[in-house]
Write a structure and sequence with these properties.
Blueprint: H1 2-21, H2 23-42, H3 47-74
Length: about 80
């Protein structure tokens, strides 16, 4: 009975850990997108270049979020 209980607790801790780890990429996305909007408002002629750089930054932030999800499944 104790082994089953410990497995359930470990599974719940993994879910809570990923939920907490998802806060970082969420903050990162907010900063990246917000600064891109701010830069576009300041210099509209650079909007296409800023948008390209923003998508590269968003891709890196999302990779970190997915890595956290995968790590939660691996170390379960």
């Amino acid at each position: 009975m104790d082994i089953v209980t410990l497995a359930e607790v470990a599974g719940n801790l993994n879910a809570i850990g990923y939920g907490i780890a998802a806060i970082g990429p969420g903050i990162g996305l907010g900063i990246v997108i917000g600064k891109t909007i701010e830069g576009t408002a300041r210099q509209p002629e650079m909007s296409s270049r800023l948008q390209t750089l923003m998508f590269i930054g968003v891709a890196f932030v999302e990779i970190l979020a997915l890595l956290g999800l995968v790590a939660g499944f691996i170390f379960q």
